[in-house]
Amino acid sequence: MKSRTHPRKVAGKRVAVLGAGSWGTTFAKILADGGADVVMWARRPEVAREIQEAKRNSDYLPGVNLPLGVRATSRLDLALAGAEQVYVSVPSQSLRDNLKMFAPHLNANAIVISLMKGVEKSSGMRMSEVIAEVLQIDESQIAVISGPNLALEIAKEQPTAAVVSSTSLETAQAVASVARNKYFHSFVNTDVIGTEFGGVLKNLIAVAIGIVDGAGYGENTKASIITRGLVEMTDFAVAFGAHPETLSGLAGLGDLIATSQSPLSRNNTAGRLLGQGYHLNDVVNQMQQTTEGLASVGPILELARAKGVEMPIVEQVRQVLAGTLDPKDIAPHLTTDDEPQGERTKDGQAEGGSAVRRAFKRAFDQLRHGGRGAGSDRP
């Protein structure tokens, strides 16, 4: 696609961030550093008080100073008063109930942005779909943000990029013009399905990488799973209407690399503990925050079966979580087939790796050229 001129930064836009975990707090910093007028909502009054008075959130971002302009409250009416853009960062499985609390205080014309990377277990719905259903707003008022976004690195102002996606390009650009600063760059696209599913699916592959890492396997095994995992992600998302280019961009490959490789990733950490022999309940108890990948395995596999998409890596993760597969057996199961098959299993063609190479080339071109000509991610 053709590149576009960057939208002019909108200073002083009144925004709300709902949720004061590590990502919600980091995103409040991103917005404030970009010039927005930010009010955070924290469920716990003591967290809101620390952010408001000390400009710290020691529970989730220890050692990070927040901008002086970030305000916080535990009152939804105050957080949402006058907010033109509302960024939602709560656990995916509690989104529906939270939205019911938010609804009475939302400006009817506000843009609602999902910072979450999960699917609802009870329905299999993406976060933007839950938002549209509960709030009864048009999809053009909804945006999602995804990409290689490890919260602590960004809170320390290490440069990164993300994708803002909405069915309305105008909405995506309006959000991207606010959600950007000297260390955080936002691209835009209109492929909400691909952007959301990329953020969900990479968590599952990151859990698999953590498992084999914890079980003692090396870089070849992990690289194989990352690459084959990208194929599974792409096949799944395309089956639901996504553009394949999106999965080779920031919301797919970019996020997959960051989440699979970093010890800052909760999904990678959870997988590593599983690989070391810890039971699922023990892992959940050790994690201080929600690990979306663990919650998404079941509903993603149900959706995959409904579309006839094979996801052998995710299926092996499910078996490890269920205790029916020894973590040390996961890599041999992933690398052994009854008979040779094409690398691109979706179309049955043995392309000698060309599809995967194109995905990597597209992602690297995007980073090299600032997003120009990089599939569906447009600046």
TrEMBL record:
It holds the Pfam family NAD_Gly3P_dh_N. This is Glycerol-3-phosphate dehydrogenase [NAD(P)+]. Sn-glycerol 3-phosphate binds at residues 117, 147, 202, 255, 265-267. Its EC number is 1.1.1.94. Residues 328-357 are annotated as: Disordered. Keywords: Cytoplasm, Lipid biosynthesis, Lipid metabolism, NAD, NADP, Nucleotide-binding, Oxidoreductase, Phospholipid biosynthesis, Phospholipid metabolism. It catalyses: sn-glycerol 3-phosphate + NADP(+) = dihydroxyacetone phosphate + NADPH + H(+); sn-glycerol 3-phosphate + NAD(+) = dihydroxyacetone phosphate + NADH + H(+). Residues 15-171 form the Glycerol-3-phosphate dehydrogenase NAD-dependent N-terminal domain. The gene is gpsA. InterPro entries: 6-PGluconate_DH-like_C_sf, 6PGD_dom2, G3P_DH_NAD-dep, G3P_DH_NAD-dep_C, G3P_DH_NAD-dep_N, NAD(P)-bd_dom_sf. It is an enzyme of class 1 (oxidoreductase).
